[in-house]
Amino acid sequence: MRRSSGLLGILGITFLLFAGVAFWLTRARGPFDLLYVAVHGGAGALALIAYLTAGVDNLRGFLGERSTKYGANTVLASVLFVAILGVLAYLSTRYHHRFDLTEANVFSLSPQSAQVVKSLDKDLRLQAFVEGGINPQVRDLLDSYRYASSTVSFEMIDPDRHPELAEQYKISQYNTVHVEYGEASTTVSTPTEEAITNAIIKLTRAAQQTVCFIEGHGEADIGAAEDARGMSQAKLALENENYQVKKVLLLNQESVPSECSVVLVAGPAKPYFEHELRGIERHLRGGGRAMFLLPPRAGAEFQPFLANWGVKLGDDVVVDQVLRLFQGPALGLEPLAETYGAHDITRDFKGRTIFPMTRSVQSEAAGKKGLQVSELVKTSPSSWAETDLAGLFERHEARLDEDQKGPISIAAAVEAQLKEMGEEKDGVARLAVFGSAQFADNRNLEGTFYNRDLFLNAVGWLVGQADLLSIRPRTLRASRVSFSQEEGTIIFYLSVLLVPELLLIAGLAVWWRRE
User: Fold this and answer.
1) Per-residue pLDDT tens over the stretch 101-158
2) Number of domains in the chain
3) What are the distances in angstroms from CA 33 to CA 27, 79, 485?
4) Range of the domain at 401
5) Which residues pair with 320 in a beta bridge?
6) Domain boundary at 144, 172, 201, which?
7) 259 and 192 together in one domain
8) DSSP label at 469?
9) 342: exposed, middle or buried (C-beta count within 10 Å: 0-12, 13-18, 19+)?
10) 66-94 and 499-514 helices, crossing angle to 10°
11) Is the same domain home to 239 and 116?
């Protein structure tokens, strides 16, 4: 009888222990939390009462047994272990650091997003209007912004419970995020990292830069959304980063419009007239910025033009002889690049870019004052610059004879100190030159390659927006497992309370039986 009552005493202490731990961790907020605490607290109290009613003599005898001392040590060790876990859990809520071990950094902001929020000099407030005030995916995303900068705060709001806030911010649908920075604010109807970061960029940019696409020579069309060779995706990407994009016809103008922050020449099919080239030259000599996307056999008039700025446009096509799976012996006219020069445009680049139908673009600035030319992108060592264009396009033959062997530079950036070049006024001109126009078209700008980042970084560098030069949020994010509140509660109780409790009781039962 005495031994049975002793077992009741140990079980009573165990039940009360886990009831206390559960209450400390959950504060009995939910109905299941309250049920667990009540059942364990009640069962523990009843077991202790039953034990105590066995008499004081039983208590003295039980406490004096060697087995009781061992059992007490086991219980105390368990209590200490649970207490340590509790202290660690408490400390983790006060002082925490994240380690994202996923391959695609699912639980981390992209370098650009982190860079943007870290540069904020005012408080940024994010308010997510979601159904029931609960959306784990949106909450995780907003918490990533908060974690990246102490200036960021966020709030999850149920628009049905707070219709006055929904009316104030003109929220008409669930999963809308209101972004507020100082006196400025905007709303995001698609709560993705890319959309939220772009909204922050728009709110924090004081002046809007204008990118002017030159037209009239068969250039890639920024309005052709259905054309794989169009550049509507490039236009959209620029607008998302708060650029104004417009078309400019230089045929009937003597100079580039003053509103153009960047002049962009994208794969002309017809030659430019002399007065158009002079207009672009005056734009650059006045401290302007320009980007040239000049594929093979196009824009021959730009070869002497760019030579004056320290850039050599090769009269060639870069061929990559790396065999790709399932493609057979086809000519490799879409070189993949993963070697980048030391420049702000390609800072932190580690992924691949693809350059369909590209020519070589190399530095030719030796001996030219005021010019600093950086080669940005190079192809693989197995590539070469094919100069027999007739054999390539007519006979579909490509041979490495006396051609330049890889790595081949296919993009360059120029920073020109105008006074050192002989201009009267001091100033800086910037150029970005690429040997392919297709690298930024609708087919290649979006996807798994880093073409989009390279293109936008080049524009950002041209206009001097250094904080935008980074890797942007990936369009394709790795999947994550999400749980409902009920599922999360079940997982918590199974892993933290029930399983340890059952193991402890089973261990005590085995020990008691052996004794």
Assistant:
1) 555 555 678 887 888 888 888 999 999 999 999 999 999 899 999 988 999 999 999 9
2) 3
3) 8, 20, 13
4) 205-468
5) 383
6) 201
7) no
8) -
9) exposed
10) 170
11) no
DSSP labels, 404-446: EESS-EEEEEEEEETTTTT-SS--EEEEEEES-SGGGSHHHHS
In a domain, 106, yes or no: no
**What is the DSSP secondary-structure string of 69-106?**
HHHHHHHHHHHHHHHHHHHHHHHHHHS------STT-T
DSSP letter string over 191-219? --HHHHHHHHHHHH-SS--EEEEEESSSP
* Judgement on whether residues 184 and 216 belong to the same structural domain of the protein: no
Backbone angles phi and psi of 165, in degrees to 5: -70, -40
Are the beta carbons of 429 and 220 closer than 8 angstroms?
no
**Backbone dihedral angles phi then psi of residue 409, each to the nearest 5 degrees:** -75, 130
Q: What pLDDT, on a 0 to 100 scale, did the predictor assign at position 238?
A: 93
Tokens of 457: 């970084």
Query: Buried b / exposed e across 345-374, counting CB within 10 Å, b at 16+?
Result: bbeebeeebbbebbbbbbbbbeebebbebb
* CATH number of domain containing 141: 3.40.30.10
| Residue 484, in any domain of the structure | no
- Closest by CA to 387, choosing from 292, 322, 298, 296, is 296
57 pLDDT tier (thresholds 50, 70, 90): low
- Measure the CA–CA gap between 3 and 11, rounded to whole angstroms: 13
- Name the nearest CA neighbour of 220 among 408, 448, 455: 455
Report yes or no: 210 and 257 within 8 Å, Cβ to Cβ: no
Cβ atoms within 10 Å, residue 169: 18
- 416 neighbors 335 (Cβ within 8 angstroms): no
Given a cut of 70, whether residue 325 has pLDDT beyond it is: no
**Is residue 384 classed as helix, strand or coil in its secondary structure?**
strand
- Single pTM value for the model: 0.68
Are 235 and 316 part of one and the same domain? Answer: yes
Q: Which of 310, 306, 305, 292 is nearest to 358 (CA)?
A: 292
- CB-facing half-sphere around the CA of 185: CA atoms within 13 A: 14
Residue 105 inside a domain? The answer is no
